[in-house]
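Sample intake sheet
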Amino acid sequence: MQEPENKPSSLKTSRIIILFATFIMMLTGGFLVYLLQPQFEQLHLERMQSTWGFYFIVFSMALLGYKLLYFLFNVVQYFRYKPVESVTDQELPTCTVIVPAYNEGHLVYDTLLSLVASDYPAEKLQILVFDDGSKDDTWDWMKKAKAALGDRVSIYQQPKNMGKRHALYRGFKMGSGDVFVTVDSDSVVKADTLRNLVSPFVVNENCGAVAGNVLVLNNDKAIIPKMLNVSFVLSFEFMRSAQSAMGSVLCTPGALSAYRREAVFNCLEDWINQTFNGQPSDIGEDRAMTNMIMKQGYHILFQRNSYVLTNVPEKYKGLYKMFIRWGRSNVRENLMMAKFVFKKFRPEASRFGTRLIFFDQSLNMLLTYPLLLLMLVMIVMHPLLFISSALFGILLASSFSVFFYAKRYNLSESLWAYSYSFLFTFGLFWITPYAIATASRRGWLTRG
């Protein structure tokens, strides 16, 4: 009985130590930047006196100016954004919720309980759950949910493990709703989540897909989830809010998304048969569906008032595998998006915002290897200047995330943005270049 009591105390101590160490290192970086000003000025002078150095400084200033303008543009879009309020029960469309499950154990039971407890008319809600050849007791937990919830849920087994995309495909083909909702089997929705999520389809006939607002469910169990929770808030409540104001959310997340039935069936066969470099696509099903619906001219929106809490990796290995999968999907779908984004894919509305988002994504990818090379050169030639500027840069760059989270939720939790940036800068910087180089590789990586 002693271990459960010690574990939370040990975790709390670890969190305090990590936050304290993060601040010490950032403040040390700031002090070193001040102390090493003569060396920084000498390096700057040497660059100005060489042709390549001069062009490098000009390019760096131009890039910094663009990034600042792009950030301000997103701030403006964020303040333009307003979530759609829930429509009445009578106006709500029929809805099919599809839950694919693989080796989730008891988590799928909690997911189904939360869905059935939704404030959504039962006669308009169909819940389909698919066990994708799990090797654990997931099917047993699905049967327990069926016994407890009765006709509110329908459970099925795939003939073998075929991948998440195929489980969703079966759900799309079987579903009868006017709107499809996909929910990950390790996620829990709030009571008003579903009605808020599907309401945009009622008030906006051009809406083809809606992204839910993802928070971390297991953020009290480990340190990495604490960091990711702050990161998710910035990614969803800031970036997706800004993208939604332009009708161009790039990715409707697997944890919680909704799709107009007609839009899904317009691209369903292309989606299930999608390939990359001659191989069937078994990752990035959410980003691919988003792209294919956007290509039809539909708006892709975000509902900040539609919450889902999902489990995330608690260890470094699981984290980097998840990021590699996301990175590979990002590479693939950016290439797909390039085929239509500069065409008249949305004749009735402005396409400027969508193209700007795509340009920024593509620019980040194009700069990946040059920036990696520059980092390696700086480490070899000026290690102290690099470390000090990187640490001080984390303090500056992450302060907006801290402010945003503190404004939306609370100050104490917001400080994890600094620790997350430290982890990303020094422990995950290799993810994007590796994902680009291995974009053709298949495999979910984190399924087990």
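Comment: The two ends are 29 Å apart (CA to CA). The mean pLDDT is 94.
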